[in-house]
Specification:
CATH topology of the largest domain: Rossmann fold
Order of helices and strands: EHEEHEHEHEHEHEHEHEHEHEEHHHH
Oligomer: single chain
Number of helices: 14
Largest sheet: 7 strands, parallel
Number of domains: 2
Distance between the termini: 35 Å
CATH superfamily of the largest domain: Glycogen Phosphorylase B
Strand order of the largest sheet: 3-2-1-4-5-6-7
Strand content: 15-25%
Number of strands: 13
Helix content: 25-40%
């Protein structure tokens, strides 16, 4: 059987140390942003003396393979759209070949393949993570999909979400007990954010004059992000504050339609589309206000990044946003699809820079207390170790706490963002 794969780092022989837990993460398409970026941060930073990490993309990659750590085995399956039996059995082969202990699938696109392949391969621990939704997921799911979700969920050892909002929805719609669903918040390597950079060259690069207020947002240009609403709100903002510029960072299939909408609204000269960028943290530091107008969010990594850069937030009151943004403390929450409310809050922050700075400091404090990358990685490590102890007691007899000092002292504490 042909297996098209790529190895990041040296795989070497199959390790015979029984205490090293072998964790296979499944993503539909590998990338470095959003959910996939969070998965990458986990696999890069789990303790290599206790875990062997495998990352499998069922289809392809969107670039960024160089950001995968050298201790991680990465493979692409190039699966076909729809049900692909060959993909299923290639996953079974992968799991058996590398004696996987835990399969961790992420979002709907990997759910069926992860559960069924693990069952065929005899993997005893199956974890499934839900991170958010697309616009097409906001309408009620078809009956057949709901039945399949409940069937798959019943066969998982553990379910994981990134917000309590998602947990509550899964408990109510998938018919699982609350104790089976664990919430692990997203985390960031804070050393990458909030530094004092000279940003004058960056202003020149993107074409913004000194002193012009910048409203900014980051995200893939797709329907669920609802950037059209932000463009509509900017008409009102620019009417009140004519020098204001909007900077959108991120690529996607909606870029041309959004540029067309900006022309129709007569603000195209005020809107800068930057596409995908590697220096997102520096760009966010340029923004006077960070805005996310989404129809739905799980736990937004871009809001977290903006908070880490001490930026005030204006976001829609959807999904997990209220778990990040406390209205009136570190930002404002507005109703979804309400351009007037969105514009009003943006204008308020642009006209009150002292308030904006207070919001920014409060946001940074929240990230430091609740969303450190070390905490996210450790929560995943503890979960994997506990599940392995239950499923493979002869192999994983040492309590996780016994290796705590090793975790804190390892070289891997130089976290890979």
């Amino acid at each position: 059987m042909e297996q098209r794969s790529m190895l990041i780092g040296q795989l070497g022989r199959v390790d015979r140390q029984v205490e090293k837990a072998r964790i296979l993460h499944l993503v539909h398409t590998y990338g470095t942003a959003g959910m996939e970026g969070g998965v990458m941060r986990v696999v890069n930073n789990c303790d290599p003396s206790r875990f062997k990490l495998f990352l499998c993309s069922l289809t392809r990659n969107r670039g960024g393979l160089e950001r995968i750590g050298g201790q991680v085995f990465y493979v692409e399956m190039h699966g076909k759209p729809g049900l692909d039996p060959l993909l299923l059995f290639r996953l079974v082969h992968l799991m058996r070949e590398h004696r996987i202990h835990v399969v961790h699938s992420h979002n709907w696109g990997t759910f069926f393949y992860g559960v069924v392949a693990a069952w065929i391969a005899g993997v005893k621990v199956v974890v499934h993570g839900e991170h958010g939704k697309e616009a097409s997921d906001l309408a009620p799911s078809p009956f057949r999909k709901r039945v399949l979700q409940r069937w798959l969920a019943a066969r998982c050892t553990q379910l994981v979400t990134v917000t309590h909002d998602l947990k509550n929805e899964i408990v109510s719609t998938w018919g699982v007990d609350s104790s089976k669903v664990k919430v692990i918040y997203n985390g960031l390597n804070l050393s990458l954010y909030g530094q004092e950079w000279d940003l004058s060259d960056l202003r020149v690069e993107i074409g913004v004059e000194p002193g012009d207020p910048i409203v900014g947002s980051v995200g893939r240009l797709r329907p669920v992000k609802n950037f059209g609403l932000l463009l509509e709100a900017m008409v009102l903002v620019i009417k009140e504050l004519p020098r204001t510029r909007l900077v959108l960072v991120g690529g996607g299939k909606m870029e041309e339609s959004l540029k067309g909408l900006a022309r129709t609204l007569g603000i195209d000269s005020k809107v800068i589309f930057l596409g995908s960028r590697a220096d997102v943290h520096r760009l966010i530091s340029l923004f006077d206000v960070f805005v996310l107008p989404s129809l739905y969010e799980g736990m937004s990594n871009t809001i977290l990044e903006a908070m880490a850069c001490s930026r005030p937030i204006v976001a829609t009151r959807v999904g997990g946003n209220p778990e990040l943004v406390e209205d009136g403390l570190n930002g404002y929450l507005v109703p979804p699809r309400d351009a007037n409310a969105l514009a009003e809050r943006i204008i308020t922050l642009l006209q009150n820079p002292d308030q904006a700075r207070r919001f920014g400091r409060a946001g940074r404090d929240i990230v430091e207390k609740r969303h450190q990358l070390k905490a996210m990685v450790r929560a995943n490590e503890e979960m994997y170790w506990t599940l392995c102890q239950r499923a493979y007691p002869a192999l994983f007899s040492r309590p996780f706490d016994m290796v705590g000092s090793e975790l804190r002292g390892r070289q891997n504490d130089v976290l890979l963002g």
